[in-house]
Design a protein that fits this description.
heterodimer; A: alpha/beta; Rossmann fold; 5-stranded parallel β-sheet; 22 helices; B: 427 residues; N-(1-d-carboxylethyl)-l-norvaline Dehydrogenase, domain 2; 3 domains; 6-stranded parallel β-sheet
């Protein structure tokens, strides 16, 4: 394959960028007053404004040409139709099928995709109904009141994000999340729960994830100490969610309590599958289905819209432009709504685990930059933290400013003075969102008269997207996350990398096994000298 | 006096007919009565009520009134609101229309309460309409089945009234029921309301406290029955409402407790004790289920159980908010079937679970035991106290009794060869 950087579309963009790099965003905006209205898309209850990108109208045309050159349309169809685009693992990536409203007749591993998905959703719905009706009983016959999600990565972040973003008021069933292997949080959480009324959702695609196995083992011991027989602990206190039925059975998950998903669902794309069980338990099946509908509508939008009308594609093209032509290394995710506090963590995994790659799909090392460093925080909190670096540091960063426009939760507040105070707070957050992105764009030009001191200097010229949700509800959250999934996928297709594998996380696990064995046996001689030194230093504490 | 009583349930009938029997001229207005409502169907379920009603109706001291034309009653001296807890909207509307029509000093008496502060609100309605009538609170302490006796020989009469003429009229009204010794306590209307709710709250606290001790006693291998007898001998406490069991229920009692919680919350005070008592009760209503679940190690699928008694208490026909309902729902959810008997509440049960494939309604308690895995007892009707245990043993698949009201003696059941589970006692 010819090098991407030598390709005509890339070369055209590089040349265009040489010219554009000399222009300050403040000037670009000043000379193009129509861009606020023009560079704006509204679909699936989301509104995305690109007017604060360092781009001219022709930049977009050159980027569309790059998308065409890289065969993006074909790649999108390949994903939706179940081709084995995850070539290092020989699998399709069919998370879109998890939320498809119509049967497209897809078949994977000789089984009909749509029917399997529906069947598992139906089984999940029965469990959810029983738990939410308080008829799922613990070992002593008391109804389950608390559900602990045991999972890590995609099996943790998706459910945790969705529930923390969407739960409102009194919770019928409280949900908790244990992910990390160290067990420090496990001990603290279990001490606050009642073994009689706690159910564990053991969520792991492979059912061999050491982190989750370790937490589940502790949970099982805790239940037995609390009075459960082993048989009832397994039968009434564990639901397994996995793509590996054999391993679930081996561990002891009762056959009635097994929910499945499939190899063709990537972990970080799995919240739409039965991994969403904890979401449905916390919010109810109707809300879970509404989330699927939002994502499905975004799928249709992504699959059928021309590039200029396509939100995820334009988001992806903006990333490529900023990354490869403006040489920006960082991307910050900044939700101006505290309920979205986990969104940065979720997107960190989605984007960086997908696109943190340096080998192309043909196995060649690549010579251009791929995934930026992604991080983030609730915007108003980050204003008191790393915004200093955004405004006056030496790294340029692109930002996604995210907020819901409507707040039905405020409108529903019965107490008038409280309602007014909350409405004021919402407006305050929106004003700050707009102000921060304005200053990043204009720098000192945001002022009529610039101050003289150097330390008051704001360079500006930093691009951002403004992403507004109609409101923070299951449908809009589904659409928002699907938008980022497709953005990530489209970026990968331009860069010619596989966004669906994660070989980079394997070696560390492998070495951890060797290290664990060495610690167990006390024979450290096989470890490298720095590891040996660090272990020796433990004794000094 | 010319009296109008509004309501279609037993408290209205008991009040109307008892007042009619004492020389008053009473009109009974069955507000919001359902289309298939038959007064004698309700009257025959309460001792003495059918006869009392029939006598007064034929003597014409008691007549029926129309619910849709309140103006007919503008000349009455006393209007008694004896509606149900759920009829709060009707009560509001009724007071509104009476306010514009009553032109001489008359009483609007609240017998059923709809929260603390309602009397005050109604008095304001009257004041706005420049009506000379006064609102009086006269909380009723009648229970299902035995209401006539309770009304005519009350243990206490609490009157919440403000103007002295209103107090005087109420004294006159209740004089025939206040003869042996003066039972009358006059307080402010709001105090009368609060008194009624506080009484119910204290009863709930007592029962829930006993149930908590019962659960502890069980783990200590102590029979709570022995403890109950000891507690009752303390005159500061007494024997009433100390029976542990499978929780309390009943539509009016539960509605009153919820209203009490709402009243607390509305005024910015946390009802800590009452909410704890309610939480304890919620668990207690399922105490038999838990015992059953543990006995069968969580495997209830396909099992059949005989259930004796579903009414919220003996002599009642109602199953609303009864403890038996959470038990039934829990068993059905686990895939068990039920064969149920109750002397009077079967129609209500049939209405709640119409043609349920896993419920069989049995006309005879022994029929319920036939081919059942165990017997569960939830309401202590008299007829269940000394059954033919030998016959039951031949009918049940296993000789097991789960006794939710501790009406059986564990020793004697053991001698009959039964496995026995009570509440707060070892089997």
């Amino acid at each position: 394959m010819d090098k991407l950087t030598n390709s005509p579309a890339w070369q055209d963009l590089a040349e265009h960028a040489n010219m554009l790099r000399c222009m300050h965003l403040s000037d670009i905006v000043k000379r193009d007053e129509a861009r606020g209205q023009r560079d704006y898309l509204n679909a699936v209850s989301l509104s995305v404004n690109f007017a604060r990108q360092r781009m001219l109208p022709e930049t977009w045309q050159l980027l569309y040409a790059l998308a065409d050159q890289q065969g993006l349309a074909k790649s999108i169809e390949a994903m939706f139709t179940g081709e084995a685009i995850n070539h290092t693992e020989g699998r399709a990536a069919l998370h879109t099928a998890l939320r498809a409203e119509l049967d497209e007749g897809l078949v994977q591993d000789n089984a009909p995709v749509y029917a399997q998905v529906r069947e598992q959703l139906a089984r999940m719905e029965v469990m959810v109904a029983k738990i939410r009706a308080k008829q799922w009983r613990g070992f002593s016959g008391l109804p389950i009141t608390d559900v602990v999600n045991l999972g890590v990565g995609g099996s943790d972040l998706g459910p945790n994000l969705a529930v923390s973003a969407l739960k409102e008021g009194d919770e019928l069933i409280r949900t908790h999340y244990l992910s990390s292997m160290d067990g420090a949080k496990t001990a603290a959480l279990l001490s606050q729960l009642d073994p009689h009324t706690t159910l564990f959702v053991f969520a792991s695609k492979t059912f061999s994830t050491i982190d989750t196995l370790a937490n589940a083992k502790t949970a099982l011991e805790w239940l037995v100490c609390g009075g459960a027989t082993k048989a009832l602990a397994y039968k009434q206190h564990f639901i397994g969610v996995s793509a590996n039925a054999k391993k679930m059975t081996e561990w002891g998950i009762h056959p009635d309590n097994q929910l499945f998903f499939w190899d063709w669902v990537g972990g970080r794309y799995s919240m739409w599958s039965t991994i969403g069980l904890t979401i449905a338990i916390a919010l109810g099946m109707d809300k879970f289905r509404a989330m699927l509908r939002g994502a499905s509508d975004m799928d249709q939008h992504f699959r059928s819209s021309v590039w200029s009308e396509n939100i995820p594609v334009r988001m992806a093209l903006a990333t490529v432009w900023n990354r490869n032509f403006l040489h920006i290394h960082g991307k910050a995710i900044l939700p101006y709504d505290a309920r979205l506090a986990l969104l940065p963590a979720y997107l960190t995994q989605l984007i960086m685990e997908s696109n943190g790659k340096s080998v192309d799909i043909e196995g060649n090392r690549i010579e251009y930059r791929t995934c930026p460093i992604v991080w983030g925080e609730v915007g108003p909190n980050a204003q008191h933290a790393f915004y200093q670096l955004l405004h006056q540091g030496t790294e340029v960063v692109t930002c996604d400013f995210i907020a819901p426009v409507h707040r039905p939760d405020i409108e529903a507040e019965p107490d008038v003075p409280t309602r007014r105070a909350l409405a004021f707070q919402h407006q305050l957050a929106m004003a700050n969102l707009l102000a921060q992105s304005t200053v990043l764009m204009l720098g000192n030009d945001a002022l009529k008269k610039a101050p003289e001191e150097a330390y008051r200097y704001y360079a500006g010229n930093q691009p951002s997207n403004t992403i507004l949700l109609k409101q923070l509800d299951p449908y809009c959250l589904g659409a928002l996350i699907a938008m980022y999934e497709h953005q990530t996928f489209a970026e990968a297709m331009i860069w010619k990398i596989n966004p669906f594998d994660q070989w980079g996380v394997e070696l560390g696990k492998q070495i951890a096994v060797t290290t664990m064995n060495a610690l167990d046996s006390g024979d450290l001689s096989g470890l490298d000298i720095t590891t040996q030194a660090i272990i020796a230093q433990w004794s000094q504490l | 006096m010319n009296i109008v009583v509004y309501g279609h349930d037993y408290p209205a009938m008991v009040t109307a007919s008892s007042l009619a029997a004492n020389g008053n001229n009473v009109t009974l207005v069955p507000m919001d009565a359902p289309s298939d409502w038959q007064w004698h169907e309700i009257a025959h379920r309460h001792n003495g009520l059918l006869v009392l009603m029939s006598e007064q109706l034929s003597a014409k001291t008691l007549t029926w009134g129309q619910a849709n034309d309140v103006s007919l009653y503008a000349n009455a001296n006393v209007h008694i609101m004896s509606l149900m807890s759920a009829q709060v909207a009707s009560c509001d509307a009724l007071v509104q229309s009476l306010a514009s029509m009553i032109e001489r000093p008359a009483l609007i008496v609240l017998q059923t309460l709809h929260g603390v502060g309602k009397a005050k609100a109604y008095q304001a309605v009257l004041k706005n309409a420049m009506s000379p009538a006064a609102v009086v609170v006269w909380p009723s302490f009648m229970s299902e089945g035995v209401a006539v006796g309770q009304f005519q020989r009350p243990e206490r009469i609490i009157i919440g009234a403000e103007p002295s003429w209103a107090v005087q009229m109420m004294r006159e009204l209740v004089r025939p029921f206040n003869r042996v010794q003066d039972m009358l306590l006059v307080v402010s209307p709001t105090a009368a309301e609060l008194t009624k709710y506080a009484i119910n709250t204290l009863l709930a606290l007592r029962v829930s406290a006993m149930n908590e001790f019962a659960n502890l006693a069980e783990t200590l291998d102590v029979d709570i029955e022995q403890v109950r007898q000891g507690i009752g001998t303390d005159p500061r406490i007494g024997f009433n409402y100390l029976y542990p069991g499978a929780g309390f229920g009943g539509a009016n009692f539960m509605a009153d407790l919820h209203t009490t919680m709402d009243t607390f919350t509305l005024h910015g005070v946390q009802p800590r004790l009452l909410s704890a008592a309610m939480a304890v009760n919620e668990r207690q209503q399922e105490v038999l289920f838990s015992k059953l679940w543990q006995y069968y190690q969580g495997d209830l699928v396909g099992k059949t159980f005989a259930l004796w008694g579903v009414a919220y208490k003996p002599n009642a026909t109602s199953i609303d908010s009864a403890s038996s309902l959470p038990l039934i729902d829990a068993l059905l959810s686990q895939g068990a079937s039920l064969r149920i008997h109750d002397p009077k509440a079967m129609p209500a049960l049939a209405k709640r679970y119409p043609n349920h494939p896993h419920i069989v309604l049995c006309q005879d308690p022994y029929l319920a035991c036939d081919a059942s895995h165990a017997l569960l007892l939830m309401t202590e009707w008299k007829q269940y106290w000394t059954p033919d245990f030998e016959r039951m043993k031949t009918l049940l698949l296993e000789a097991i009794i789960f006794d939710g009201r501790n009406i059986y003696d564990p020793e004697s059941l053991h001698s009959h060869g039964f496995t026995y589970f009570g509440v707060g006692r070892k089997g």
